[in-house]
Amino acid sequence: MKRPRNVGAFFMLKYKNHILLHVIVFLWGFTGILGKLINLDSLYIVWYRVIIAFLVVLLIALLLKKDYRVKSNKKMFQLFVVGAIVGLHWLTFYMSIQLSTASLGVLCMSTATLHVAWLEPLITKRPFSWVELILSLVVVYGIYYVSGDFKPTEYLALFYGLLSAFLAALFAVLNAQLVKNTSALKITIYEMLAAFLVLSAIIVFQGKMTTAVFDVSWSDVFWLLFLGVVCTAFAFLAIVDVVNYLGAFTVSLSINLEPIYTFFLAIIILNEHEVLNTKFYVGAALIIVVVIVNAVIKSQIRRKNNRLQKKAALK
Question: pLDDT tens-digit profile of 93-108?
Answer without folding.
Answer: 999 988 888 778 877 8
